[in-house]
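Example 3.2
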Amino acid sequence: MSGLSVANKTYLEALLGMSTGYVLDFSNASFANFFRELSIDIYDAERYPGFGDSKANRVRALWKNGSDGEVASSLYALGEYLEAKKATAELADITDEQITRVHNIARSLGGSQAKDAETPLAGGTQASFTTEATVAANKIRIEIHEDIYNHIDQYLINGDYFHAVEESYKLVREKLREKTGSEKATDAFAASNQAKIFGHASRNPVEKDFYDGVKYLNMSIQFLRNEKAHTPATPLESNLALHYISLASLAYDLITRYVSDELITEVEGIISAKRRNLSAAAFYRVFEGGRWLESINLPKELKSSSVRRVLKEKWLTEADFTRSYDHSNVMLMRLEVVAEELTKADLDGLIERPTVDSYGNDQEAGMLPFMEYMREKHPDKISTKVEGWIGDKLKELAQH
């Protein structure tokens, strides 16, 4: 079952004209083919039961019974379809704001359409993700790495594509310098630096080929930037600029996946020390609303979404709420540090985890203030399931 909220369903039904039983201007054939290209058999009544056979009802069945990933990919594609129809004036009343909202709803589901299948590297932790990408017909929609986008967004808003490209390439080279001491790709990817970038030296020909591929990609960034750095700033065609930026995003993604054991130990030590220095009563006072975060200094590396995502995956895997109150507190403190990277599915999974220890004692501690913090700071990540859970917990407290 997807986490699509009632409010978002209501908005989408109106936008897609579903009250009539239709969906936009799709015929039966084009409707089935649209979802088939997304590897979704929209007329599979066993996979997506209920509602009926009209196009609108088939979409409702997908929203109810499909996974977050399936619903997210279909909404991304529908957004692209709306954009194409708007450009050809076939749906001239569609606005850019409406298209953006459809994409934002898809993104809020946390369904990833591009998962990386690599195993973790020894001697550290590596991200098991890539930035999201979806395909609709011959159009690819790529999510630019958050660090890259945050660095160049003002250039993009102002249409200054020359400097958007220049700055995206500069950020890649700065990251290489930060990791290896050199921003020059030929030096940064020397054998002695492989562990700094990838976690360990290449162990076989396949890994060597991959390491070399990442090196040559970064060399391309270096040479392309050199060409722009030594020529006057000139208008750059937006389509070409976006291709350049996506290249920078990929290069940045591939060199920021590895997080060292030293950094992980440092962050976890800071969090554990904070918990040890507080009594139970004091802890819950500062934990409420995330106030404890204001009193600690975390390493600057946590500004990178790549690092936060690595830590999120590690800490979600390790989160155990059956050991003790204090341990549960620490687990939730860790997750507040990476709250930006949590998804609806992550939060849904947390409230389903066991909390009773082997002696029959409930060790759930801090989950309610954690979820209230998420609802306050990141309301788009709260599903109807979690909202209901919060309501039930508050009722239980009121009765005692």
